[in-house]
Amino acid sequence: MNQHGYIHRKDDYLKRLRRIEGQARGIARMVDEEQYCIDILTQISAMTKALHAVSVGLLEEHLSHCVVNAARSSDAEAQEKVTEAVDAIARLVRS
């Protein structure tokens, strides 16, 4: 079975994602309690930064593990993985 590059940091990613999940619940609670708009936007910004940090970490893992292993295998596989990475970066930049 081919393991993904992030597998050795899986627990760290899960912990971060659970924290982000808690932030989302907190933001929903803020809206429900009709708190000040700017305070809600500040929390959304913090959550967005946290998601970007997870994304960048996963992208780094993809490049250092999946792309490197593909490059060792064949040029075609390497190109496929690089294209995946470029597409992922483009999606991140647009978000």
Share of helix, binned: over 70%
Approximate shape: elongated
Provide a count of the helices: 3
Mean pLDDT: 92
What would you call the structural class? Answer: mainly alpha
Give me the Rg, rounded: 17 Å
The amount of beta strand, in percent, is under 5%
Strand tally: 0
Largest beta-sheet characterization? none
The low-pLDDT segments are none
Distance between the termini: 32 Å
- Helix/strand order, N-terminal first: HHH
Written overview of the protein:
The protein is mainly α and 95 residues long. Helices cover 84% and strands 0% of the residues. It contains three helices and no strands. Helix 2 runs antiparallel to helix 3 (75-94). It is elongated.
List its traits:
single chain; about 100 residues; mainly alpha; 3 helices; about 0% strand; elongated
Provide a compact summary of the structure.
This protein is mostly helical and 95 residues long. It is 84% helix and 0% strand.
Provide the fold topology:
Elements: H1 10-32, H2 37-73, H3 75-94
